[in-house]
């Protein structure tokens, strides 16, 4: 161990061969018709002047940035509509891959169910790190706070019955599933790139999580190829038409404000089926001792108010609070929790009910 | 178009559906026994104090960083030794995925040849962006310089016969295949994480490119699970034993220095087969008008000197300068160039000759 400033640094070297989880080996092979990756959307900065290949200065050079990066897999006999998966705050495409405890995530689960799967890193995140804005990123210890906000428990305690493995190897992978933004998260930049993806691949079902929930609503207003949205624990950004927005909802994580948009834009969200899921261990009334979880009480309440307004205007929004249908113990990441097959089954059932799995 | 400071910004929105290249659709399906992702290696910063879940300050919190991120695929009836692919400077795992012009890269090509394929993002890059050091990253236009250094041509001209598609969509994808480092590239950090990967998965063949070439030699000294190395255009960091290092080699990109290591460490590299490839359009003598390409003249010359020293001590290093065996037009990225099947065939043949493809 070395002392780095006031901080303690521990080096983690794995020196023995660790076998991969047996569970994944029992599955049938994935039959992939096609797989690959690409950048989509973004912008180009061009420095004035003429490029000199000997001096190699900035004059006349370009910088391509702010694109999304996408890795896609199309299974044999794929269903018509692909699923496009969009991570949340502090996260990247890993959200949908192997779970922290080494089981299959939604990437593999839905490939096995014959959906084409597109995993996106939003602009300025993960493999799409080439940002057009300057960024300074500091390694600030913050993981016990995320443990609370993501409702695994209240550090150092896990919630009783939480759908999360309590071993240290799982927690190590969980914390390493985060990666910073290279610059501000710009709603226009991230939704433009996702709309460009829809323009490139055509009709799709968008699956969002947390922070991307709000961006998903905006993207669907920008591109009609987004035929449906499934959103896991969307955070801020529920868009109400002017005159129909509720009051802010207080929580010990701070007040949650509704977003107001033009009615013409809002009405676009009444044209597609939408399902929203929230997990367990959300306080039922303002909890000053647990701000990490309490913010989700406000978001769940806002989601229900929003669904009512969209549905009043002819929309088709369903809000599922998982414990209310008997699905207990889910964290902020239901799709990678221990019961993620059950969570996937719920999504499959909904997709079928809406004719989205042809 | 908007003016951003002195820089011109162009927004690139794809608004029509673009079909994916037909070429990839003609292939047989990929049969994947298992696929997934994980973080490996890295360190942990722990802030002193006790975490307070209400205040949520830095006290007592942790920060897991400096791991590598790995996405792996194991095909049905996989060969014994996996190929672990390590990107070069400014790059990430995309290096080995879909080529800039939309063809299959080494990821798919070697899966089809029944190798398990592990694609790594080195610590502080791409999906492994959670860095333990502070970083400030600026969007400096630099792409015409890379066009030269990567030997596509001398901007705005392509080299005659270069194995690179000359359309703008290809160049767009090519430039967007870069992503910045989040903090200094630390040889100890990146080689520790790669050695940890070898510790986790066991015996493997390491495939390096450019900047990771030098790191590959160090990693093989750290972990004997690295059973062979294939290196595409390794840059600096050729390790010579004390007393046997050559003089620096001048180039218009600056002098190339040899690296000196303890003889005991050096001798480890005599125990494994190594192949090194360089592409075309490398000057034959110091070219003051083309520093981008001239640096490769020095690196190729140093590689040959290094191979001689390793082989003198009983090693097995082969340096292939592709034009000398009739393979013309390759850039700094032979594995994604237009003739990448031919390049893959050369690697397959070498792996077979060394008994590495059982």
Automatic annotation (TrEMBL), chains A, B:
Keywords assigned by UniProt, alphabetized: Signal
Leader sequence residues: 1-22
CDD domains: Esterase_713_like-3
PANTHER family for this protein: HYDROLASE ALPHA/BETA FOLD FAMILY, PEROXISOMAL MEMBRANE PROTEIN LPX1
Name assigned to this protein: Alpha/beta hydrolase family protein
């Amino acid at each position: 161990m070395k002392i780095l400033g006031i901080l303690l640094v521990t080096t983690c070297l794995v020196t023995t061969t660790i076998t991969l989880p047996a569970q994944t080996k029992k599955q049938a092979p994935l039959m992939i018709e096609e797989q690959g990756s690409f950048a989509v959307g973004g912008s180009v900065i061009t420095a004035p002047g003429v490029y000199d290949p000997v001096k190699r200065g900035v004059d006349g050079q370009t910088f391509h940035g702010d694109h999304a990066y996408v890795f896609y897999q199309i299974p044999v006999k794929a269903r018509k509509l692909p699923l496009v998966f969009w991570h949340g705050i502090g996260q990247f495409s890993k959200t949908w891959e192997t779970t922290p405890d080494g089981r299959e995530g939604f990437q593999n689960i839905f490939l096995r169910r014959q959906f084409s799967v597109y995993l996106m890193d939003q602009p300025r995140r993960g493999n799409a790190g080439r940002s057009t804005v300057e960024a300074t990123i500091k390694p600030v210890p913050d993981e016990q706070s995320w443990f609370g906000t993501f409702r695994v428990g209240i550090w150092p305690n896990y919630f009783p019955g939480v759908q999360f493995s309590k071993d240290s190897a799982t927690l190590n992978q969980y914390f390493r599933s985060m990666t910073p933004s290279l610059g501000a998260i710009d709603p226009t930049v991230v939704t433009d790139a996702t709309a460009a993806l829809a323009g490139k691949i055509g009709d799709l079902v968008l699956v969002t999580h947390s922070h991307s929930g709000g961006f998903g609503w905006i993207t669907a207003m920008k591109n009609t190829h987004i035929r449906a949205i499934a959103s896991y624990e969307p955070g801020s950004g529920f868009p109400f038409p002017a005159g129909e927005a509720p009051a802010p909802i207080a929580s010990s994580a701070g007040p949650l404000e509704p977003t107001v948009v033009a009615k013409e834009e809002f009405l676009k969200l009444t044209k597609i089926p939408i399902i929203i899921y929230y997990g367990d261990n959300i306080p039922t009334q303002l909890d000053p001792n647990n701000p990490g979880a309490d913010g989700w009480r406000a978001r769940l309440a806002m989601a229900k108010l929003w669904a009512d307004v969209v549905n009043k205007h002819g929309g088709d929004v369903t809000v599922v609070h998982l414990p209310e249908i008997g699905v207990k113990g889910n964290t902020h990441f239901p799709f990678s929790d221990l019961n993620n097959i059950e969570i996937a089954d719920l999504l499959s059932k909904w997709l079928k009910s809406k004719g989205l799995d042809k």
